Amino acid sequence: MPIPTLLIYDDRFLAHGVDWHPENAARLEAVSRHLRSRGLWQRMASLPFDAASDEQLAWLHTEEYIEEIRAVCAGGGFEIAPDTPVSQTSFEAAALAAGGCIAAVEAILDGASSTALCLVRPPGHHALPDRGHGFCLFNNAALAAEAALRQGLERMAILDFDLHHGDGTQEMFYHRGDVMYCSVHEHPLFPMTGGLDEVGIDAGTASTVNVPLPAGAGDGHYAEVFGRIFIPVLGKYRPQLIIVSAGYDTHHADPIGHMNMTARGFYDLVAQIAGAASVLCEGKVCIVLEGGYDHDALAAGVENTLSALWGEPGLDAEPAPAVHPQVLRRVDEALRNAVEVHGERLRL
Fold first, then answer.
1. Which of 12, 140, 188, 202 lies 20 to 30 Å (CA to CA) from residue 76?
2. From CA 184, how far away is CA 271, in angstroms rounded?
3. In a 3-state reduction of DSSP, which class is residue 112?
4. Is 126 a catalytic residue?
5. Rounded mean pLDDT of the chain?
6. pLDDT per residue as tens digits for the range 14-47
7. Structurally, what CATH architecture does the domain formed by 6-346 represent?
8. Cα angle at 330 between 225 and 164, to 5 degrees?
9. Which phi and psi angles does 32 have, rounded to 5°?
10. Which of 16, 126, 185, 187 is catalytic?
């Protein structure tokens, strides 16, 4: 019988933030309730973990920033950015989220399982070395990748299919060649980074791969990005473990985004990742939750993520709404251009 997927979750994640904000505790409650009702929660193995220490957070964040977040939260909370409120318990939740993701990759490397699902909040991929914004405090996926490198790995990959570009993750590894960062995201949209020409510098040259797509992209477009760009890139880079910044805000029902994906689309992306991982890195995949603000769509997306990881049939999704032909033409043109540019630059 296969070793079950490791589960990273703690009720203390629910204490972060404020109820009126889109990134609120009800997101995780909806996912937990759904997975339990479907019998999927019970099939995973809960992994004990601790909060990331200041030393671990300082692998990628400045000591001044860590102290700033601690002080703001200790003072009762405020906004660390106009879009990112924190509460008195937010530092604990954010350090715990980072610690959970670190523990997940360390357990994978120790042979406890080949896969992990990190149901954490606050999310992380917008967290910069010295600043939090975009609902993010500490960069969970990036810190997990750094932990794996400190355990002796030489090549990591982070695949990001969140609605938004992970500007924090990109900045942390932009000059390095030991972490390949691949992001497909809506553009133009916050944080207005992640252009085709952002490819890395110094040792990190060609280790950043961005695919910005206009509003209206759907399942087929995202599947093509992975099939024609990201998976071939991974094949050349040969990562020893893959971390996925999994955002489900590209779903057509999401209140923040303008994309047109369905739960079936998330299944297809994760199936491609799992297939590549089985060839490249003995199936080692760590899923880290990022965005997703329609609770039903988020829960269905996470279910289909697990189903794809396990090689089981996923939920059949309702068809996405029709998109105007002119919108589709813009998306198709942007995708063709990305395939051409990256194909020539990376010799895919």
1. 140
2. 16
3. coil
4. yes
5. 97
6. 999 999 999 999 999 999 999 999 999 999 999 9
7. 3-Layer(aba) Sandwich (3.40)
8. 55
9. -60, -45
10. 126
